[in-house]
Amino acid sequence: MQTPVTALPAAARQPWRWLLLLVLMLSLSGCGINNIPTLDEKVKSAWSQVENQYQRRADLVPNLVETVKGFASQERETLTAVVEARAKATSIQVDADTLNDPQQLQQFQQAQSQLTGALSRLMAVSERYPDLKSNQNFLALQSQLEGTENRIAVARRDFIQAVEAYNTEIRTFPGKIWHSVLYSDMPIRENFEATTENADQAPKVEF
């Protein structure tokens, strides 16, 4: 006579359930289920660096304007243009909540481009004032501004690459599946677009 098989008690089955759940979670993580939020965080981090470097440039502007004013106060129109462009650039902020807003991102880019243009005109003014060009404070600001422009170019490049990686992930297999199932609220992200000629290159700052 065959001995009947008795089911395992619920307490004995519980560890196996947790083990199976753990194996399933590890399998899913290996299939890229976490790629989309990870790449999204990289986009946000890269954008923070863009903002950080633009803010660094904005912080240099007041000292630069005051230094130029000390040697070329008659260049009132150029100095005013720089101050106004800086005020507009710092008034437009794009954070993680508005990073997906194309209009906000475009406004931010345009404001930063206007400040770049105003600074370029200010640099051209310095050519007419030899004493200004040889001033030590002015030379120090020149070096800091050049370094900042280079950092801006690098930060923008890193942001562009981060957005490209994120957008590619949610539009290709298997990321497209995870996006439709788990992350449908995370849209394609806007990227930088050149708003001026050679905008992908750091301006050459000459004094």
UniProtKB/TrEMBL annotation:
SUPFAM superfamilies: LemA-like. It is a single-pass membrane protein. Its main location: membrane. It comes from the Bacteria. It is found in: Membrane. Pfam families: LemA (PF04011). Keywords: Membrane, Transmembrane, Transmembrane helix. The keyword Transmembrane helix applies. The keyword Transmembrane helix applies. Belongs to the LemA family. This is LemA family protein. The lineage of its organism: Bacteria, Pseudomonadati, Pseudomonadota, Gammaproteobacteria, Oceanospirillales.
